Amino acid sequence: MTDLDHTHDPALCSWVASANAADTDFPIQNLPLGMARATGSTGAFRPVTAIGDQVLDLIAAAELGALSDALGAVLRTCEGLGLNPLMAIGPGLRRQLRHELVAALQDDAGPKQAALLAPALKPMSEVEMTLPCRIGDYTDFYAGIHHATAVGKLFRPDNPLLPNYKWVPIGYHGRVSSTGVSGQTFRRPLGQTKAPEAEAPGFGPVKRLDYELEVGALVATGNEPGRPVPIDEAEQHLFGLVLLNDWSARDLQAWEYQPLGPFLAKSFATTISPWVITMEALAPFRRAFTRPDGDPRPLPYLDGAANRERGAIGIRLEVHLQTRAMRDAGQAPAKLMASDFADAYWTVAQMLTHHASNGCNLQPGDLFGSGTMSGPAADQGGSLLELTQGGKQAITLPGGEQRTFLQDGDSVALVGRCEAPGRRAIGFGPCVGTVVPGGAWGVGGPPGRRA
Ligand code: MN
C-alpha cells in the first residue's frame, strides 16, 4: 500500500495559482491522470494531469525536460491510445511520475519553471476529455451493503441479504462499449418489460430509468492466467479510482434478471469521471477496514494486515439532479444525498484479489464498479429506487417538480471529495450524464413492426 511522503504535505503549494484555492479539486497533492485534447480538435488524445484549473500535457512536459526520459518514452506510447502503457509499468515508475510532477509544479520551482512549462499548460475549459484508457473488461461489484439490503427488502422483506453476501464479493460482467466520460448523453433505452399485473410483456421506452452512485477502480499491472493475486499485493495492481454512474432501467431489470443477472438493464450506458485519482493521491484518506460485531471475518484469502489497517478509503460521495426545467430556469442542480465510500462492505483490494482468485487474468485498464454506495440512513440511498422506495414515494425537488424515476432531459452529477483532518482535500472532478428522449428505432417502434 502506498505510503505517505513529501508529495502529501498539506503545506505544498504550486506556482499555478488556481491550484492553491481551498475549494479546488486539483491541488498539487492530487495530480490526477487523464486523456485530453484541445476542444474541437481532431488530433489524438494525449496524457495529461490537472493542476488547479489548468491541464498539463505530459508529453510536452517531458519534451521540455520536466520529466525523465524513461517516463517520457512511456507517455509517448499513450498518445491516441490511453493510459494503458502507464498502467502496465508498475508502481515504481508511477510513483516517480508523481514525484517528478510535484518537483516541476511546486512553487519552489520558481518563475523559471513556470516560463519553461507555460507552453505545456492549457486552461481546462479549452480541452475535451475521453476515456482515460482502453477498458478491456468491466466488472460491476455489489459492495454497498446498505444498497443490497434496501433493494433486497423491496423484493424479499424478511430476507433482504442473500446468504452469500457477507462471504463473497458479488459481481457480474458488464459492458464496455457504451461507457463514456462526464458529459455523456444517451437515449432513453427501449426494452422488453412486463408490469406485474400484465399477462404478457411489451416493448417500448423504459419507464423506471435510474442512476447508481458508484466508485470505479482501474487495474494497473495485470496477472498471468492461473496466477491469483495475494491480498497483500492487490494494491500494487490498482492504478486509481474514478466516479461511476451505472445507469439502470429498473423495469427492464426486474423482468430479465433471473436467472443470469443484469443484462440490457445496464448495458446501454455507463458514465465515468475522466480524471483518474491515483492510489498514491488517495494515501492520506485510507481508513481501517472493519466489520460490524457478529459479521463473519473474510476468508483468509481476502484477509490481510494492511487491508485491515488501511484497506478502506474515505470519499464523501454525493448525487445531484438537474431537470431540464431547472436548467432552463438557470437553477443549480439539487443535492439528493450523501454517503461515504469507507462504508463499502468490501475493499477494492478484496475485489481485485477475489476477481483473480480463480485464476482469471486481469489486464491494465480493466474497470471495476464498486456497487451502489448508499449510506445507512433512508435518505442516503445511492439510487432513486431506494430514495423513492421502489417508485412508491416521489421526491420533491427545490423548484417543486417531483420524481420517482428519471425523466428525459434530466442530468445526474456525481461528486467525490476526500477530506481528512490535517490533510489537503482533493476531489474527483465532474461526472455528469444526461438522458435524452429515446426512439432509437424512430416513430412506429422496431423495424419489424413498421407498416
Ligand atoms: Mn451497479
Please explain how this structure is put together:
The protein has 451 residues and is α+β, with helices and mostly antiparallel strands. It contains eleven helices and 27 strands. The chain has helices at residues 58-63, 69-78, 84-88, 91-105, 110-117, 145-155, 250-256, 305-310, 324-328, 348-356, 384-387, and strands at residues 33-38, 46-51, 54-57, 121-123, 127-130, 138-141, 171-173, 179-181, 184-187, 190-193, 202-205, 209-210, 213-219, 238-245, 248-249, 270-272, 277-278, 286-287, 312-313, 316-322, 334-340, 367-369, 395-396, 402-403, 411-418, 426-427, 431-436. Strands 6, 7, 8, 13, 14, 16, 17 and 22 form an eight-stranded mixed sheet that branches. Strand 25 (411-418) and strand 26 (426-427) form a beta hairpin. The termini are far apart. The mean pLDDT is 95.
What are the distinct ligands in this entry? manganese (II) ion
Q: How large is the radius of gyration?
A: 22 Å
| Low-confidence sequence ranges | none
The largest sheet, given as strand count, sense and whether it forms a barrel, is: 8 strands, mixed
Gross geometry = globular
Mean pLDDT: 95
Share of helix, binned: 10-25%
Total helical segments? 11
Q: What separation lies between the terminal Cα atoms?
A: 62 Å
Note the beta-strand portion. 15-25%
Count every beta strand, where a strand is a DSSP E run of 2 or more residues.
27
Structural class: alpha+beta
